[in-house]
Amino acid sequence: MKRFNYFSSILMMVSFSMAFTACNKNGTTPDGPGAEDLSGIVTEDLVLEANQTYYLSGSLQVKAPATLTIREGARLVARNNGEVIYILIEQGAKIDAQGTAQNPVVMTAEKESEGAWGGLHICGKAHTNLGAEGGMSEIGNAPYGGNDDDDNSGILRYVRLEYTGYAFDSEHESNGISLYGVGSGTTISYVQTYVGSDDGIEFFGGSVNVDHCVVVNCTDDSFDWTEGWNGTAHHLVAYQSDPTCDCLMECDNNGDNETAEPFSHPDLSYVTLIGNGSEENSRGIRLRAGTEVSLDNAVITGKPHTINVETAHTQSSLADGTSVLTNITMTGDFRNENESASYDSDDFLAATGNSIVESVEVSDRFYTPGKGAFETSSNWTSGWTR
User: Fold this and answer.
1) For the CA atoms of the chain, what is the radius of gyration?
2) Please, is 254 exposed, middle or buried when counting C-beta atoms within 10 Å of its C-beta (0-12, 13-18, 19+)?
3) Cβ atoms of 163 and 109 closer than 8 Å
4) Best CA proximity match to 246, nearest among 308, 296, 290
5) Is the pTM of this model over 0.85?
6) To the nearest 10°, the Cα dihedral for 30, 35, 39, 44?
7) What number of other Cβ atoms are within 10 A of residue 133's Cβ?
């Protein structure tokens, strides 16, 4: 996770309230329907039709009360034009992107490599632990947070994002999907981020619930949370083959104040995490900065230090049972990095169903039949993921 606020001035370069053009880079009309170049600020409902290709030539920022609707099979392709390109859904606006397993919505890039564009950013009105004023999005400088934990920012269903993680400078890159104070009225189900140069999916507070999420080769953390996220997440897959990938999960409450309330405390279940075997990027799940968590039914392999506990409140929440780790099968080791450990590997192994094993059966990159995210042996990732 990397924190920054950047260039609201770049957004001001676009002076129109809703902009999209139907011209290619040579100024001529592209062949075929649905080949518009999209950019700018959207203030009225915008529909992207099924099975059409649209090009993102700059940032696309959706403001309340507009809804960006993306129908099944639509492809959004970020131009390789040197512009800062991302999609931002502001508070009170919505995205309704619904594909199918056979025909997902795809957000990708002309340049087929990590960091080609800036991904998807959604700002909601649910809680954070940043205080009454909430926060500002890392990209687009849009406000997020509030007291409406039922807030609805729309629907993502069968959506794949590719080649995200645009580098704004040498220190700052964007996530695949960033969820800022997103509420439980939002539906996020069957989504994938594929090949990115920052986190795959990151939660900044909020109460949003997610399911059937896949992150493949995002070179910072696969899943990341902070600022008080307390939703549920089930059927999660992270896969890393790139040796530069960092944590499978990086889990914070608040990096500036580990006892800030409400605490991050997501409820996770049916999880498969496959690491890259790197000795340099050796942590699998990193529990720190005061986070709490409930994790049940997980398979974790490919990281030498599979579960790592840091900071006082994170440790005490495990010791007193506020946080719960159960039915976890993993290779590697359990580490408590606190100077005085009140919850250690013996405590982990004494909890219901936990075991440390020599190896885990994995087929086809991340499929763990009968275990973790695939507890019924049905491969729900088939057809719409890469």
Assistant:
1) 20
2) buried
3) yes
4) 308
5) yes
6) 130
7) 9
Q: Where are any strands of DSSP class E within 71-166?
A: 75-78, 87-89, 94-98, 105-109, 120-123, 135-136, 143-144, 154-164
The band of 273, judged by pLDDT with boundaries at 50, 70 and 90, is very high
| 333 bridge partner residues | 305
Residue length of the chain? 386
The answer to whether 236 and 270 have CB atoms below 8 angstroms apart is: yes
Q: Are 236 and 272 in contact (CB under 8 A)?
A: yes
What pLDDT shows up at residue 11? 39
CA proximity to 301, closest of 319, 322, 274, 283? 274
Work out the pLDDT band at 244, boundaries 50, 70, 90.
confident
pLDDT tens per residue, range 317-374: 999 999 999 999 999 999 999 988 899 999 999 999 999 999 999 988 999 999 999 9
DSSP conformational letter for 169: S
Q: What is the dihedral of CA 146, 149, 153, 158, to 10 degrees?
A: 140
Tokens of 305: 């230090």
Q: What is the DSSP letter of 260?
A: -
- Pairing mode, if any, of strands 209-218 and 187-196? parallel
- In the numeric block, the tokens 């890039």 are attached to 109
Q: Which two tokens stand for residue 354?
A: 């936990």
3-state secondary structure of 320: coil
Going by C-alpha positions, the residue among 84, 255, 41 that lies closest to residue 173 is 84
Terminal CA-to-CA distance of the chain, rounded, Å?
24
Amino acid at 364: D
Q: What's the confidence (pLDDT) of residue 198?
A: 92
Contact 258, 312 (CB under 8 A): yes
pLDDT digits (tens, 9 = 90+) for 48-81: 999 999 999 999 999 999 999 999 999 999 999 9
